[in-house]
Amino acid sequence: MKKGLSRYVLTEEIYAVLKDKILTHDIAPGEKINIDQLGRDLEVSNIPIRESLSRLSAEGLVETIPFKGMYVAKMSQQELDEIFEIRMELEVLAIRKSFGKIPIKQLNKLEKDMNKWHKAEFTNDDERIRYISEMNEGLHGLLLEWCGNRSLQNLIRSYIEKIQRYLSLSHQHLDQTLIHEEWEEHMLVIRELIAGDTNSAELALKSHLERSHARTRIYVE
User: Fold this and answer.
1) Can you give the pTM of this predicted structure?
2) Distance, CA of 14 to CA of 8 (rounded, Å)
3) Counting Cβ atoms within 10 Å, is residue 29 exposed (0-12), middle (13-18) or buried (19+)?
4) pLDDT tens track for 84-137
5) Angle at Cα 208 formed by Cα 177 and Cα 198, nearest 5°?
6) How far apart are CA 134 and CA 162, in angstroms?
């Protein structure tokens, strides 16, 4: 155990590290997890690693095969379809619940930030991915912040995390056209929220999620 860290803190740290490795495909889907090797790499005992993997298993990111070991959960179009189907219903509920609660100042600031981001020039894939992440957190994070339902927030964020594994594949193929599509879809939702049109904002959000689903699905076998 690392000096100065409690077992709880250590497990949280390892959980975060392992989750990031899975979401970014540093540990590939279907790959067997070598607990002993992870212990050597992270310079910790196997106990907090097993505890972290148990938590990731409960989240559906790791699966245990009897008499064989623990593996990173595989990915499939079916799972992606199911995740997006659920997320769409939940997030439409979130925008409905947040409507009228989000301060107009925050919406105007988000619109201003979006226009600023739209003028940005990217020199590498990392910058493009960071731009998409900021844009997503700007809109979707704002809806969750003001929906007034913590359970709903947690559910949606859990599905967004599951989708992140799939987005990591599609983000490898980002180009300016796709980025512009994402930007336009987000801006339409923001403008409808500013205009105070609930139905149009819901429809714009639903359309954005449907398009995001289609863009991501192309890269999943």
Assistant:
1) 0.85
2) 10
3) middle
4) 999 999 999 999 999 999 999 999 999 999 998 777 676 676 777 778 888 899
5) 135
6) 18
Reading the block at residue 102, the tokens are 């989000």
The residue behind tokens 């989750």 is 19
Joined together, the tokens standing for residue 189 give 């939702």
Query: Which string of b and e fits 108-119 if b means at least 16 CB within 10 Å?
Result: eebbeebeebee
| Tokens linked to 200 | 């149009």
CB of 107 closer than 8 Å to CB of 190: yes
For 99-147, the DSSP string reads TTTS-HHHHHHHHHHHHHHHT---SSHHHHHHHHHHHHHHHHHHHHHHS
